[in-house]
Amino acid sequence: MILAQLKEYLDANGVKYMLITHSRAYTAQEIADTAHIPGREVAKTVMVVIDGVMTMIVIPGCDMVDFRLLKRALSCGEARLATEEEFARLFPGCETGAMPPFGNLYNLPVIASERLAQDEYIAFNAGTHRDLVRMAYADFERLVAPRVVDISVPRRSHADSTGKYEPTE
Known about the structure:
By secondary structure, the protein is of the alpha+beta class. The protein contains five helices and twelve strands. Helices cover about 20% and strands about 30% of the residues.
């Protein structure tokens, strides 16, 4: 079932989309597997606090946020993952962690990875861990108007400047 607020917004803006219902899945890779779509098309919503402001980050499901890239792109001081306790109440009607990447519906800034725009379509949680919306990336960008920057890397550890490997998320 699609979140009513999201459905109304998409319909009011004439967006063509597909609703995909799948077995309960929590990670982007599980969602891609159960919905039979490429993992790079699954848009993962990551909540972060940037200089004290709750912000929605949207990246390909097979990526992770690179906080060094994020800080550099935004010229900010603090950037950290938000806790579930910090963001859960901001998304009434959504299962925790299944919020759609439409921060504009919740008065939240949205930052999207440049890598997300490389595919024609994106798919994202529709408010539950069982429902997915698939639509054109161009429509997402038109409706959400995210700030698009280089903020994500393929999911894996990578070497920092000292040569040590450390996770970026």
